[in-house]
Amino acid sequence: MAIRKEHDLHKRRLGRNMGVGLLLGGFVVLVLALTMVKVTSKGFKFPQAQTAPQAEQN
Amino acid sequence: MPHPLMAKETDMSDASINARNIREDEPSFGDYFALLKPRVMSLVVFTALVGLLAAPVGVHPVIGFAAILFIAIGGGASGALNMWWDADIDQVMKRTKSRPIPAGKVEAGEALSLGLALSGLSCIMLGLATNLFAGAFLAFTIFFYVVIYTMWLKRATPQNIVIGGAAGAFPPVIGWVAATGTMSVEPWLMFALTFMWTPPHFWALALFMRSDYDDAGVPMLTVTHGRRATRIHILVYTVLLAILAVGTAFSGIGGPIYLAVAAVLNALFLHGAWKIFRRDEDDSEADNFKVERSFFKLSLLYLFLHFGAILVEALLKPYGLGGW
Q: What is the DSSP letter of A41?
């Protein structure tokens, strides 16, 4: 039968996993924020390939 | 019958851990973080921030935050790669033997992987967040610190500290380039300030941590040219540094506040270097290198306050107060 005793190793792994999880979460938030800032800035233009079909329709 | 993998995950007694030869001293999150040299990273963050804010172009706070973060991660990555390469000499020196690799907390290969992964991440993300020039500059800085300094010149020449100082001096230039996308004289003045400051800072340390570098076989000036020559070098570099630091007051990043700070600090620094020059080894050993230690402490304050003054001048400019 399995012994479910918590080892110090589990605590360290939990700390590491939590740390990596928080960092990844923070990274996602940062990339989202950067994207929002860039697409809402005055100088932002859609790439030519995406604007061409719209121009054809008009 | 339980799945073998499930049994492995749940049956974790001390005995089973030892039997499976799993590392009981698995590194913690903090051990990996220590690979990034957090204290050096704090200097990188501060000088890069000053470079970014002293630039004559406004940066969106989110982009500015991202730029500083990725410059800091790039600096940390080069620290991890430095620890991977220098693990053998870190083990010998008192100052470095408690670092994660020589202390047995992290394996050298893990430091290499972390350093390479963070190097790639930081350069690409800085390039995307700001401009490609900044990303490429960060990549060059990491290459310079890891390959040119750590792998090649650190163990080959007593001018290692001078060359290593260049790598540590790049962050304000990267901060400036991240903001402007171009280069000008002002960021190179900030570069020169850190570049000229590094040798007297480290040679003072080498004077009172004497056995460390001897034991590791690193060709520090104290080992190759003697301690008298090191004292002369400290004075010469300090005089050149003082001329540069005070001269910077009359550039686009200077101003009256910076000039006042530079005048006081350089007078103190020159006085300290002069006292080091005048002493011999008997004097130093008699008071346990008191003058050298206080010069080293002053050097930390010296750089922080110079960059702090540049920052104050930059922050006051929008109100018509900073600069000349």
A: S
